Amino acid sequence: MAAIISQMAANKRAREKGQFRTIIGSDKCVYTLPPFDPCFDPMVHNKYMKALAQRQMYEAHMEANRRREELELLRLQREKSSKSTVPKTFMNNQSLWKTLFVFRGLIMLKFRNLL
């Protein structure tokens, strides 16, 4: 206990005399760093920057693929809608012929029953 009190007293005397160095906080760096090399390229040396650039390229590629697929779907829908108008008339003609054959068959049955 006496040692602690003597250290506190010695520190107080040193502070009063101004012999204490300034205390640097734990959030400050005591080293002075030289400036970065002007040839430093973060796209070459930094893994995060490399991954970020690759991700952006991938997203751009996927966006282009998505747009290409949308255009292809639109083209197919246009082709389908333009082709669907032609078969509708064919389907109407086909159903007309089927109806005529059915009526012909009914008429034939009616005449057979009468004979």
From TrEMBL:
Q: Which domain of life is it from?
A: Eukaryota
Q: Please give the name of this protein.
A: Uncharacterized protein
